[in-house]
């Protein structure tokens, strides 16, 4: 690492995926959480503006190992990577993106419905340890040994190439699996992106700050603020529709007859809530986006 590509001593080191499926979402989340940074082209470290935090850009599949071994203090990667790495890390929070499943998949033409039929056969995967853990009990039951081979990518091609009888790979939409003529025989793990830290991380305050900032951003992206007017006699019914996260804010309008209500509402429910408020007699219904929050 050159001097430009290193972290000032004493900074909290925070690893994020340098490319791949999680990279853009993590960068957008950090920006939304006010953890601003400027990354020079081709450098794998960047300093956060105004905080003693160094971002370290690493392959997603290596991040759990670096966090577990204390080379970095905190990181973001998939739960699948953490489980596969078999290292001890503190699972701070789920991040709500990067959701997919790790599945055993076999060629559709083979019509395999019972995963036990694959014990003793050839499996190709990027997750050899989780695969071994999954097939261990099946092997023991049948008295066979499943052959498990590692590949780092394009796992879905292995059956078509004659290298495997089945694969263990991630499935999100199922597009890759279907295109390769495969189908799910068994689920191994549901995964999503998570925030992790070294169990003995020295930078407790910064870890808390990062967690708080990210939580604020996640809340802000999940909720919108709904604001409406309603006559005092209809207020109780309207408030039942929008009880808020804690409770709604209610103020009296100048006319003395009506109330103005503002309340947090889940983004995915807002259109239904607007219809219900309209039917309950509310007027002047506005929906406002929240750019960040601290609850
Ligand atoms: N199709 C997907 N949908 C959602 N999340 C996924 C998907 N594929 C992978 N992930 C998540 O992203 C993590 C990184 O996967 P990715 O395939 O981007 O690996 P990579 O090694 O960083 O990149 P690359 O495949 O470009 O080398 C996975 O461990 C998983 O948690
Ligand atoms: O169910 P889908 O939506 O099709 O997504 C699943 C695919 O996404 C990932 O691969 P990626 O495209 O990241 O490339 P890789 O094979 O190089 O890991 C994963 O390994 C699957 O192959």
Model description:
- Keywords: Amino-acid biosynthesis, Glycosyltransferase, Histidine biosynthesis, Transferase.
- This protein has 8 helices and 15 strands.
- The protein is of the alpha/beta class and 295 residues long.
- Strand 7, helix 4 (128-142) and strand 8 form a beta-alpha-beta unit.
- The protein is globular and about 80 Å long.
- Adenosine-5'-triphosphate is lined by residues 17, 19-22, 59-61, 78, 80-81, 98, 100, 153, 170, 172, 191.
Annotation keywords:
6-stranded mixed sheet, binds 1-O-pyrophosphono-5-O-phosphono-alpha-D-ribofuranose, Alpha-Beta Plaits, alpha/beta, D-Maltodextrin-Binding Protein, domain 2, 3 domains
Low-confidence residue ranges: none
Shape type:
globular
Total DSSP E strands: 15
Query: How would you classify the helix and strand content by structural class?
Result: alpha/beta
What small-molecule ligands were found?
A: adenosine-5'-triphosphate, 1-O-pyrophosphono-5-O-phosphono-alpha-D-ribofuranose
> How many discrete structural domains?
3
Distance from first to last alpha carbon: 40 Å
CATH superfamily of the largest domain: Periplasmic binding protein-like II
CATH class placement of the largest domain: Alpha Beta
Instruction: Tell me roughly what share of residues is in helical segments.
Output: 25-40%
Task: Give the topology string: H per helix, E per strand.
Answer: EHEEHEHEEEHEEHEEHEHEEHE
Largest sheet: 6 strands, mixed
Contiguous helical run count: 8
What's the architecture of the largest domain in CATH terms? 3-Layer(aba) Sandwich
Report the portion of residues in β strands. Answer: 25-35%
Give the neighbour order of strands across the main sheet.
2-3-1-4-11-5
User: What Rg, in angstroms, do the CA atoms define?
Assistant: 25 Å
- CATH domain fold name of the largest domain: D-Maltodextrin-Binding Protein, domain 2
Quick check: average pLDDT?
95
């Amino acid at each position: 690492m050159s001097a430009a590509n290193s972290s000032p001593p004493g900074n909290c080191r925070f690893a994020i995926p340098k490319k791949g499926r999680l990279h853009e979402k993590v960068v957008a989340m950090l920006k939304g959480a006010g953890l601003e940074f400027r990354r020079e082209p081709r450098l794998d470290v960047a300093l956060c503006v105004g905080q003693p935090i160094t971002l370290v850009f690493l392959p997603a599949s290596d991040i759990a190992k670096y966090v577990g071994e204390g080379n970095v203090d905190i990181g973001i990667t998939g739960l699948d990577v953490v489980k596969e790495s078999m290292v001890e890390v503190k699972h701070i929070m789920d991040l709500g993106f990067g959701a997919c499943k790790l599945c055993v998949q076999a060629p559709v033409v083979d019509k395999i419905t019972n995963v036990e039929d694959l014990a003793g056969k050839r499996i190709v995967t990027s997750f050899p340890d989780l695969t071994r853990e999954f097939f261990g009990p099946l092997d023991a039951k049948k008295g066979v040994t499943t052959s498990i081979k590692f590949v780092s990518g394009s796992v879905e091609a292995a059956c078509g190439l004659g290298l495997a009888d089945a694969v263990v790979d991630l499935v999100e939409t199922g597009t890759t699996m279907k295109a390769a003529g495969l189908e799910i025989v068994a689920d191994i793990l549901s995964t999503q992106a998570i925030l992790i830290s070294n169990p003995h991380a020295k930078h407790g305050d910064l870890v808390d700050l990062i967690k708080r900032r990210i939580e604020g951003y996640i809340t802000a992206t999940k909720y919108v603020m709904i604001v409406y007017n309603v006559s005092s006699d209809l207020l109780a019914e309207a408030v039942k529709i929008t009880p808020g996260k804690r409770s709604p804010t209610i103020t009296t309008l100048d006319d003395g007859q009506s109330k103005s209500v503002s309340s947090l509402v889940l983004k995915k429910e807002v259109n239904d809530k607007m219809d219900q408020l309209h039917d309950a007699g509310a007027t002047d219904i506005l929906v406002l986006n929240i750019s960040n929050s601290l609850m």
